[in-house]
Design brief:
Helix content is 40%, strand content 20%. Helix 13 links the parallel strand 13 and strand 14. The chain has two domains: 263 residues, Aldehyde Dehydrogenase, Chain A, domain 1 (3-Layer(aba) Sandwich); 182 residues, Aldehyde Dehydrogenase, Chain A, domain 2. It is built from 16 helices and 20 strands.
């Protein structure tokens, strides 16, 4: 794609029902999205089913080469993709936002293409030889969210394609244009029918989850929707990878340097304006350094500009949709009503255009406050005081979710000791939410199951087969 207009034109529907997508920062139209139906889904699955055997027959090397070319194509269209993403999702171009997300798409494609997955000899004792191989599943259904629509779609499709599968993507109804555009760019390097996007409503997602032609569902989103997908997939015994909601805890140990960790804490919590499953959403700080951490974190947060994403100065944007804005506002209002102390924010301008909620830090808040116990998924962070590490660990583990967590300390060994006690799929030391395409990622408890990324992520998109003899 040579220009932004050409990119948008390439995904503009020429027939059928459409829906206007609005910029959450300005309320202005971004473009027209197709409203696909279950019939469209059937056609996409049929095309994927027809294209998949030849793709699988190419072998790993040829498929990897195609994915590397797709990464090149994403990089060629990076600025146009980032502008569309910024307008549709709301995230700014700069900071760890739109340009960052498009860059991550290329990076994940490259790592999926180049990660080695060799047959594993599990027994070879002179009498018995057994090898473990991974064969393609067939057609994979990918259901993605609105917060990182391009990046998470690549998390799903890149390993699926590398392992010889075809993919049918169902994007969020809030951010279909970004995913349609990304797929259009990637499809420049793929056989026809292998990768398609069906931009429909809930009925399309339900049909995809229960379709007998789909061998696996990859889903990132809420725990409630994940449970519904589990039920929908049961009759066809689909394989599932579910990355569900989180309410990640961070624990600051008493030896930490408040000034040194303040910016890391900020971005751990407020990346993508807090709209990240594995963002820091509950911060537990030892009483000895509580006030100092509050002060340093407030100082950093106060310097971060929020506004329209296409303005190069901004690093924080609006909430993507009004429903999410209302959730954040309700939880902050409950915290304020309880007597918690507002360090920053908490005072949205009712006359401001767009779904902007100000960066908000709440101190002296009870651990059972709704802002602590419910996932806010927005720019509001509760900071809870603790006296003993046992207390902090117990509070961090008290909820029924466990996607990520973090421990902050000047002593990495002490931090790792605490990390081992936390019930989360990933525990970061002196950082939070830093995913890496080489490192497995997945949740504990009701934050889902299955692993993505790296060798384990490739294995999850194949059918294990033992050849014995």
């Amino acid at each position: 794609m040579e220009t932004y207009d050409a990119l948008l034109a390439s995904i503009s529907p020429t027939s059928g029902e459409t829906r206007t997508i609005l910029d959450p920062a300005t309320g202005q139209p971004v473009g027209q999205a197709p409203v696909h139906t279950v019939e469209d889904l059937e056609q996409a699955i049929a095309a994927a089913t027809a294209a998949q055997p030849a793709w699988a027959a190419l072998g790993h090397d040829a498929r990897s080469a195609a994915l590397l070319r797709a990464a090149d194509a994403v990089e060629r269209s990076a600025e146009e993709l980032a502008r569309l993403l910024s307008r549709e999702q709301g995230k700014p171009l700069n900071g760890p936002n739109a340009r960052f997300e498009v860059g991550a798409c290329a990076a994940w494609l490259r790592v999926a293409a180049t990660t080695a997955l060799e047959p594993e000899t599990v027994v070879d004792d002179g009498e018995t030889r057994a090898e473990l191989h991974y064969r393609p599943i067939g057609v994979v259904g990918a259901i993605g969210p609105w917060n990182w629509p391009m990046m998470i779609t690549v998390w799903q499709l890149a390993p699926a394609l590398r392992m010889g599968n075809a993919v049918v993507v169902k994007p969020s109804e809030y951010t279909p244009l970004s995913v349609l555009a990304l797929a259009a760019v990637i499809n420049e390097e793929l056989p026809e029918g292998l990768l398609s996007v069906v931009s429909g409503g809930r009925e399309v997602g339900e049909a995809l989850a229960g379709h007998p032609g789909i061998g696996k569902i990859m889903f990132t989103g809420s725990t409630a929707t994940g449970k519904a997908i589990i039920k929908s997939s049961a009759d066809t015994v689909k394989r599932l990878t579910l990355e569900l909601g989180g309410n990640d805890a961070g624990i600051v140990l008493p030896d930490a340097d408040p000034k040194a960790i303040a910016e890391g804490l900020f971005w751990g919590a407020f990346i993508n304006t807090g709209q990240t499953c594995a963002a820091l959403k509950r911060l537990y700080v030892h009483t000895d350094i509580y006030d100092a951490v509050c002060e340093e974190l407030t100082n950093v947060a106060a310097t971060m500009p929020m506004g329209i994403g296409l303005d190069e100065a901004n690093v924080l944007g609006p909430l993507q949709n009004r429903q999410q804005y209302d959730i954040v506002a309700r939880l902050v209002d409950a915290a304020k009503a309880s007597g918690a102390r507002v360090l920053l924010g908490g005072n949205p301008d009712p006359d401001r255009t767009g779904h902007f909620y100000p960066t908000t830090l709440i101190a002296d808040i009870d651990n059972d406050n709704p802002l602590v116990t419910e996932e806010q998924f927005g720019p509001a962070l509760p900071i809870i005081r603790y006296s003993t590490v046992d207390e902090a660990v117990a509070n961090a583990n008290a909820l029924d979710v466990g996607l990520g967590a973090s421990v902050w300390s000047a002593d990495p060994a002490a931090a790792r000791t605490v990390a081992a006690r936390l019930e989360a799929g990933t525990v970061w030391i002196n950082k939070h939410g830093a995913v890496d395409p080489r490192i497995p990622f997945g949740g504990a408890k009701q934050s889902g199951y299955g692993l993505e990324f790296g060798v384990e992520g490739l294995k999850a998109l194949g059918v294990p087969q033992v050849i014995n003899g």
